[in-house]
Design goal:
Length: about 200
């Protein structure tokens, strides 16, 4: 886990992360900052035990099918950021990528950050697709990296859509860099092992 020093002095923010699988919370638990809630789809509520726990612990459920309700939720989240002194964790892809790379971002998280006037903090996790096997003891290495905060004051002329696309590009580049680093480590390790 890298880049935690990038957020030491941040009180409220919108954290965005790539969403690969149901194991995402396992791969980067130390990245969650205090007083941070996440936003999930309303259907999570119906997952036995998890759904109720998710809701009771203050996380926010959004009805993505109803655009009016979704917009109202954004307003409520903006109020919560300031009134309850919270940060919000969002997967802007809106769904798990399941090995399809970084999917296009929805603009809601960026609209939230703009309306709340808080920084966006991208958090990238190296590709984990086909890496996890619960029957295997060693599932390899994963790198999580918190990128530098994106200050809304510097991006006032952008629309939420443009900001989403800009952040997508930054994160896509970073994830490729993390994947390449892990690939080079694997090549080096296999090279050493072949000599033994």
């Amino acid at each position: 886990q890298r880049g935690l020093d990038n957020v030491q002095n941040i009180t409220n923010a919108v954290y965005i992360s790539n969403h690969q699988s149901v194991y995402d919370f396992v791969t980067s638990p130390g990245m969650l900052r205090p007083r941070t809630v996440s936003i999930g789809k309303k259907s999570l509520l119906w997952i036995p035990f998890f759904g109720q726990l998710y809701w009771i612990t203050g996380n926010i459920l959004i009805d993505r099918e109803n655009k009016t309700k979704a917009r109202n939720t954004i307003k409520q989240v903006v109020e919560a950021i300031h009134q309850r002194n919270l940060s919000v964790w969002v997967y802007p892809e809106g769904t798990r990528s399941k090995g399809r790379g970084l999917l296009p971002f929805k603009s809601g998280a960026f609209r939230m950050a703009m309306e709340a006037n808080v920084p966006i903090i991208p958090m990238c996790v190296s590709t984990t697709h086909n890496q996890f096997d619960l029957n295997r003891k060693d599932n390899g290495r994963v790198i999580s990296e918190m990128m530098e905060p994106i200050d809304m004051a510097l991006y006032q002329t952008m629309s939420a859509r443009e900001l989403a696309d800009y952040c997508h590009g930054l994160m896509e580049q970073k994830i490729a860099q993390l994947d390449d680093e892990l690939k080079q480590e694997t090549i080096a390790r296999e090279s050493v092992n072949s000599l033994n």
